[in-house]
Write a structure and sequence with these properties.
single chain; alpha+beta; Cathepsin D, subunit A, domain 1; 2 domains; 33% strand
């Protein structure tokens, strides 16, 4: 074999090695990209499921905590203390005409808002008058007016509470200022919501 042929053979082998290495690296990179894409897809799917079923999950968690004695909502005398939830909001376990529901405490809402399913199960008394027009983060909606005979949270109880009901609420049940204003006081201490009763509350 001449020197020229030997040099050409060396160049050919080197070129083949580089090509094979490039394909190998490409396969590795494609594999990494695919794994990363699948991982993000799984995360997006999980978040979508959690957000879409958050209220059902809250109800399920409430059942688990009550069943196994892991309740966080505490009653101290007549005072109810509610720790902040994982989502940064305060959720209370309330009884609406005896029907237990998780309710979001919202001091920015002037009136208590109830889902249609809860209103039906709890037997709310609905008004035949004009609907209430509410401004929400999703726009303006119409809601029926109703009255709740009793709302209780631990040792706290109020009667004849005004509420609005709309299919736009989905599964959401929200405790508004018309309930909070009947208390002797409410405040946030650290990450705990403190609700204190008032002996004689006037109807709203």
């Amino acid at each position: 074999m001449s020197g020229m042929q030997g040099a050409n053979l060396i160049w050919l082998v080197a070129t083949l090695v580089l090509v094979i290495s490039a394909f190998s690296l490409r396969r590795v990179r494609i594999g990494l990209v695919l794994r990363a894409a699948l991982g993000w897809a799984a995360i997006v799917l999980l978040v979508t499921v959690v957000v879409g079923h958050r209220y059902q999950l809250m109800d399920a968690w409430s059942w688990v905590t009550e069943t196994f004695g892991l309740e966080d909502q505490r009653v101290q005398g007549d005072t109810v203390r509610v720790p902040m939830g994982p989502d940064g909001h305060f959720w209370v376990r309330a009884r609406i005409n005896g029907v237990e529901r998780n309710m979001l405490v919202d001091s920015g809402a002037s009136i208590t808002a109830i889902s249609e399913a809860t209103a039906k199960e709890a037997g709310l008394t609905m008004s035949e008058g004009l609907p209430a027009i509410l401004k929400t983060s999703n726009g303006t909606i119409a809601a029926r007016r109703g009255r709740i005979a009793t709302v209780s949270i631990g040792s706290l109880e109020t009667r004849d509470l005004g509420a609005v009901v709309s299919p736009n609420f989905g599964n959401m049940n929200l405790l508004g200022m018309n309930f909070l204003s009947r208390l002797h006081g409410w405040r946030v201490e650290g990450h705990v919501l403190v609700l204190e009763p008032k002996k004689h509350a006037a109807s709203n």
